[in-house]
Design goal:
Layout lengths: L5 E7 L1 H11 L3 E6 L3 E6 L2 E7 L7 E5 L2 E5 L2 E4 L2 H14 L5 E6 L7 E7 L5 E7 L11
Parallel strand pairs: 1-4, 7-10
Antiparallel strand pairs: 2-3, 3-4, 5-6, 8-9, 9-10
Length: about 140
């Protein structure tokens, strides 16, 4: 069995949203049904974008960096990939929901993270971990 995550979300205008995932985030495409849905290789995970009129609702929840939008989904990237995504966001002139922020400074879970919305207002958290090997290490 693989450990690949599958997530299907409403995409609004499929062509517009696919451009965001490919041109801005740098993802590639997989299987699709023309005009209905397309699979995106979301760094080894299967993100399925569905043509839709709907958007997911969101609310803000308090965490150490402020009130973040929920629901959201995202990915942990290498520093190089993270910097590449940030550069493409800047080149495209897109606006962050929550600007890049360093959390847990000096701790084993130190990370840089930001929040951005795709064209259908699905909220993504993109992060890079300073110590990716300790992500699920809960030992004190």
């Amino acid at each position: 069995m693989s450990g690949i995550l599958h997530l299907a979300i409403p995409a609004g205008d499929l062509k517009t949203t696919v451009k965001f995932y490919t041109d801005i985030l740098g993802c590639t495409l997989g299987n699709s049904e023309a005009g209905r849905w397309v699979d995106v290789n979301f760094w080894g995970n299967e993100l399925t974008l569905h043509q839709s009129h709907e958007q997911l609702p969101s609310v803000r929840h308090d965490v150490d960096m402020g009130a973040v939008k929920v629901p959201h989904f995202g990915i942990h990237l290498s520093q190089a990939d993270f910097d590449g995504v940030k550069a493409r966001i800047a080149e495209a002139g897109l606006t962050y929901i929550d600007e890049p922020y360093r959390r847990f400074k000096g701790e084993k879970y130190e990370q840089e993270t930001f929040f951005i919305a795709d064209p259908n207002n699905n909220i993504l958290e993109i992060k890079t971990m300073m110590n990716p090997d300790v992500l699920f290490d809960t030992a004190a």
